[in-house]
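Progress report, Aim 2. The chain analyzed during this reporting quarter is listed below.
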Amino acid sequence: MSTDFTHEYGSTAADALRDFYIRSHRTLDKLMAGEGASLARNKMLGHIERNSPVRAADLATAFGFAPRTITEAIDALERDGLVQRSGDSSDRRVKYIALTAAGREVLSASEPVKKTFLSGLFAALDAEEIATLTTVLGKLNHRLAELEEVYSSNGPATAAVTDQGGGKRSRKKT
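Predicted structure tokens for the chain:
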């Protein structure tokens, strides 16, 4: 389905998505802080728990952050006793990161807070609305993946963007 998406309409939808993301992130972050973990820490601790042990490079790839940013986050988690680093017996340069008992406790305490928040949030929608939202967000995520591919292969200066109707628009960054 091809849509003539005006700047005003697109801007409104993008603003609504941005506002929803910021407000929900801020609210959940405050709730989780009461359990000893920010939302960012919860995400990182959860990833480490599911994939343990992991390397800092694995975390940088998973979260799309610069290695230095991940190192600083791991340092803070380690300082707070939530993770521990251990060496690789075959390569002294490699350090693996795993949760400590305290890290598992923080993750365990914060997960119910997250689930309760999400249940309360989505209670505003009926089943049909949730299905529609899931479909729409799925389409946007699929499109985002396509655009990431286009932008990464063409570089940031020029990218060809194909609309859903099959037409081609060219957009050059000035």
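The chain has a mean pLDDT of 84. The first helix runs from residue 7 to 33. These observations will guide the mutagenesis work planned for the next reporting period.
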